[in-house]
Automatic annotation (TrEMBL):
InterPro entries: Cof, HAD-like_sf, HAD-SF_hydro_IIB, HAD_sf. This is Cof subfamily protein (Haloacid dehalogenase superfamily). Gene3D superfamilies: 3.30.1240.10, HAD superfamily/HAD-like (3.40.50.1000). Signal peptide: none annotated. NCBIfam families: Cof-subfamily, HAD-SF-IIB. Pfam families: Hydrolase_3 (PF08282). It comes from Glutamicibacter protophormiae.
Length: 264
């Protein structure tokens, strides 16, 4: 019996234009009406939950920043966060620069986004941000929930393969974008599954009672944690290879199809 549905956003239920289809929206609302808990689990910061708010209103709790932050959407407040010391970010940046001297960095904190020189480009609008200064310890007061490194020239999988093995003891490393070579780093003990597990324990729900959906490598641990983990057919090959089940692609409302089949 499924008691909780956990879903990634971008590439899973959120289309490239930032919308969620009405069929998908109705499927989640029907699941909630059937008594199933809904939790969205995303790499996005809590400030970028517009698709969820537009489709579902202020519904429940969202696991943000790849598990580093638990956010109460209804009361607009951070419930819990696990932050990364700036000293760790400095060490990670040096390791990355040794392999990719052109890398640029950014840090998502509990207060906002800090952008390093060269990180932004004309294709990505990051909204309001502050300059990134890793030489200062003041950013520790805000708490880094996600440290980002971008390569302007190395393909994503090559960038990850070059640096991830040397970063594993410092922090957790993943990636979730098809269109940019971007590493996403957090506290060494944090990924989507760790926070989802903790959230489920609070509700008295076991992993075998969880259905989860995702499309990218940052979803792999979550899909393996859930008793019913579905990779999107339109997702990354590594995610597809790691999941127990495969849902139809996003373009065919794959998540909605699976939920509809679940409900009476």
């Amino acid at each position: 019996m499924i008691k909780l549905i956990a879903s990634d956003l971008d590439g899973t239920i959120v289309n490239h234009d930032g919308s969620i289809s009405d069929r998908t929206r109705q499927a989640f609302l029907a699941a909630r009406d059937a008594g199933i808990q809904i939790v969205f689990v995303t790499g996005r910061p809590f400030r970028w939950l517009t698709p969820v708010i537009e489709s579902f209103g202020e519904m429940g709790t969202v696991i943000c920043s790849n598990g580093a932050l638990l956010y109460d959407l209804e009361h607009d407040q951070v419930i819990w966060s696990r932050t990364l010391p700036v000293e760790t970010a400095r060490k990670a940046a040096q390791i990355i620069l040794d392999h990719e001297p052109h890398a640029a960095f950014a840090a998502e904190t509990t207060k906002g986004l800090h952008l390093g020189e060269g990180f932004a480009d004309r294709h990505h609008n990051f909204g309001i941000q502050a300059p990134l200064d890793l030489s200062s310890d003041t950013i520790d007061a805000e708490g880094i929930v996600k440290f980002l490194a971008r390569s302007p020239r190395m393909p994503m999988d090559d960038f990850y393969a070059a640096v991830a093995p040397q970063l594993d003891s410092l922090l957790s490393v993943t990636h979730s974008a098809f269109d940019v070579s971007l590493l996403e780093m957090a506290h060494v003990d944090i990924h989507k599954a760790t926070t989802l597990d903790e959230y489920c324990r609070r509700l008295g729900i076991g992993a075998e009672e969880v259905m989860a959906f995702g499309d990218m490598p940052n979803d792999i641990e979550m899909l393996q944690f859930a008793g019913h983990g579905y990779a999107m057919a339109s997702g990354h090959p590594l995610t597809l290879a790691s999941a127990r089940y495969v849902a139809p692609p996003l373009a065919e409302d794959g998540v909605a199809q699976v939920i509809e089949a679940l409900l009476p």
